[in-house]
Design a protein that fits this description.
By secondary structure, the protein is an alpha/beta fold. The protein is built from 16 helices and 9 strands. The protein has 2 domains: 336 residues, Metal-dependent hydrolases (TIM Barrel, Alpha-Beta Barrel); 47 residues, no CATH class. Helix content is 44%, strand content 11%.
Length: 410
């Protein structure tokens, strides 16, 4: 499976990347933004992986159709990424738990395959110090996050096993309530009702405490407001919102309102502003109608339908949805930085970061794959952020939170 990308292919990728990052000078006279970008340790806190990841069909050591692979990370100066053990929500039953565990295991095995196939190019980090040590060698840094605690089942006993495997954050919920608490997005097909758990369940409180004990960050992205507020109050360590937006900028239930942002700052945590088009920029009514027509035609009206669909059908669905961009322009890097600006204004520069949600629906014009990462830095420079501030946004704040969580572990 091991393949080395050719210099010609890498050059072609760089030439295909938008030139926005070359349009501005940094605050050092005569220095390009790319020079400034390359001096920083950049971290993306949310990268999903495809069902064919780490196979001959999608080899992360080569140039692929994925938004993130090792060549694109190098081309875009993206040093570190959290690769995600993601499982969608389903029935809160023993059968549902068993299926979720199997899916989580599959995602972990795929991440492990990448690490084992390319030890000279990428290494797993378990601590903030590891991130800095590995990045200093020139390798890419891989970290692991768990999106949706659902696969843990009816207890938190398995969380220690996942910690030992490298998981360094766990989100309480995903789309739909689960055994740990209420989600920001209800799954009516699963019988969800607003506030049905009144936030965290008793098991959810155990999850927060166990994550604190084990040195795992509690992730409040995809989590309902009442649940997030309770989690922040209960947690003895800072929390992370691994991939969210600012609700004041785009009114989406997945985004954090100002009260949540202020509470997160008081908790000492960090909110990673996400480059997910529909969270960043509210779609027009006409776009919503066009998407709904595609879903109805393809029988993909619920997230459960999309999860149950074949890989080929999902690809067709997303291809048709993405084709609507020509008529309805999607969000841009500037729109993402609008969210960063607002979060910084409300929570402070020490409590904001950046994430993509690449290969899980993320991507905006100008930052649609890892090779385009310098464009975010360019927009931050354009807005007047200093080098020190940009370093914080690109991972300095996150590593501070990681260290605080590590120190609070028992």
């Amino acid at each position: 499976m091991k393949t080395i990308i050719s210099g010609v292919a890498l050059a072609a990728l760089c030439l295909a990347t938008p030139a926005l990052a070359q349009e501005f000078e940094s605050q050092v006279p005569g220095e390009s933004v790319r020079d400034l970008h390359d001096r920083m340790l950049t971290m993306d806190t949310h990268v999903d992986i495809d069902g064919k990841y780490a196979t001959h069909e999608l080899d992360p050591g080569t140039m692929t159709a994925a938004q993130v692979d090792l060549p694109k990370m190098r081309a875009g100066g993206l040093d570190a990424a959290f690769f995600i053990v993601y499982v969608g929500q389903d029935e809160v039953t023993e059968a549902g738990y068993a299926e979720a565990r199997a899916k989580a295991e599959d995602k972990y095995v795929r991440i492990r395959r990448m690490l084992d196939a390319y030890p000279d190019q990428v290494e797993l980090a378990l601590t903030a110090d590891d991130v800095e040590r590995i990045a200093a060698t020139g390798k890419r840094v891989a970290l692991i996050g768990m999106e949706n605690a659902y696969p843990l089942g009816p207890s938190v006993e398995d969380l220690e096993m996942w910690r030992d495997r490298g998981v360094r954050y766990v989100s309480i919920t995903h789309m739909g309530h689960n055994q740990f608490g209420d989600s920001s997005n209800l799954r009516f097909d699963l019988g969800d009702e607003p506030g049905q758990n009144d936030g965290l369940t008793d098991l959810g409180r155990e999850l927060v405490k166990e994550a604190n004990r084990l040195g795992i960050m509690v992730d409040i992205s995809h989590v309902g407001k009442q649940t997030t507020m309770q989690a922040m109050e209960l947690s003895t360590a800072p929390v992370v919102a691994s991939h969210s937006g600012a609700k004041a900028v785009s009114d989406n239930p997945r985004n954090l309102d100002d009260e949540q942002l202020r509470a997160l700052a008081e908790n000492g945590g960090v909110a990673q502003m996400v480059a997910f088009d529909s969270y960043v920029k509210r779609p027009s009514d006409a776009r919503i109608d066009a998407e709904e027509a595609i879903r109805a035609e393809m029988g993909m009206e619920s997230s459960a339908d999309r999860q149950a669909a074949s890989e080929e059908k999902r690809r067709e669905y997303y291809s048709r949805i993405n084709a609507l961009d020509a008529e309805f322009p999607p969000a841009t890097v500037a729109d993402v930085v609008d969210h960063i600006d607002h979060a910084v204004e409300v929570a402070g520069i020490d409590h904001v970061g950046i994430s993509s949600d690449f290969d899980g629906g993320g991507g905006v014009t100008g930052w649609d794959n890892a090779a385009e990462t310098p464009n975010v830095t360019a927009e931050l420079v354009k807005r007047g952020y200093s080098e020190e501030e940009i370093e914080k946004l690109w991972g300095g704040n996150l590593r501070r939170v990681m260290r605080a969580v590590e120190a609070a572990a028992e």
